[in-house]
Specification:
- By secondary structure, the chain is an all-alpha fold.
- It has a single domain, classed as Orthogonal Bundle (YcfC-like).
- Helices cover 67% and strands 0% of the residues.
- The chain has 11 helices and no strands.
- Helix 2 packs across helix 9 and helix 5 crosses helix 9.
- The relative contact order is 0.23.
- Keywords: Cell membrane, Cytoplasm, Membrane.
- This is High frequency lysogenization protein HflD homolog.
- It is found in: Cytoplasm; Cell membrane.
- It is a peripheral membrane protein.
Length: 217
């Protein structure tokens, strides 16, 4: 099945959401997550002028985990479903929809993301662990100053012992900020909830294509 560029962008954006949500799940239930996957979604926040979803994530390889998770969850032949994961993705999309209607908070977020992009322009978060930790805390603060102001909230389930830790809370908020960013990409590439009903076959084809043939930025 031939997959067009729009579907490719939609799949990469969805993979960004999926990878971010799975990071939240790992943090909430295990107290840790894959740092490589985490850095990839946070780095997407620093790409404010990219021309495509692939550009935002520096190619599809950086969201390979998200692509695999999504392909499993929307494949009708796969019986290993994760209702909590699906529920959280739906919550992220609902929060982004509400947020997009709040112009003042949107402007505030755009201003702060622009500043973040300038402050971390060298993207050495991949090599410098201290810079990576600073970025996590700054993303967490941005989330608290913007998305946390909305009446709608994302309910995160997990082990109370982990969820009570300030470090884990900061990482969860940072990952959710990345998920919201990816959700904006999904909408910008023409994505809607109807895709999961009427265009699931084309999405699945795009996910499989990207997994077998990763693309560069």
């Amino acid at each position: 099945m031939s997959v067009n560029q729009q579907v490719i962008d939609q799949c990469i954006a969805l993979a960004g959401i999926a990878q971010s949500v799975r990071i939240v799940q790992h943090l909430a239930w295990k107290g840790h997550t894959n740092d490589t996957d985490f850095k990839a979604v946070l780095a997407s926040l620093l790409k404010v002028d990219a021309a495509s979803a692939a550009g935002v994530f520096s190619g599809s390889f950086e969201v390979s985990s998200g692509l695999r998770i999504l392909s499993q969850q929307i494949d009708p032949d796969n019986k290993d479903k994760d209702p909590e994961f699906v529920g959280m993705v739906i919550s992220v999309m609902a929060l982004q929809t509400q947020f997009a209607k709040n112009r003042s908070l949107m402007d505030k977020l755009a201003e702060k993301i622009q500043q973040l992009s300038e402050d971390y322009a060298d993207q050495s978060i991949y090599q410098d662990e201290q810079q990576f930790e600073r970025l996590i805390n700054e993303c967490s603060d941005i989330y608290k100053q913007t998305l946390s102001k909305l009446s709608q909230r994302i309910q995160v389930k997990g082990e109370p012992a982990y969820l009570k830790q300030p470090e884990t809370q900061a990482k969860v908020r940072a990952a959710l900020l990345a998920a919201i960013r990816a959700c904006f990409l999904w909408r910008q590439s023409g994505g809607s909830r109807w895709h999961f009903i009427f265009k699931k076959k084309s999405l699945l084809a795009g996910l499989r294509q990207l997994l077998s043939n990763p693309i560069k930025e």
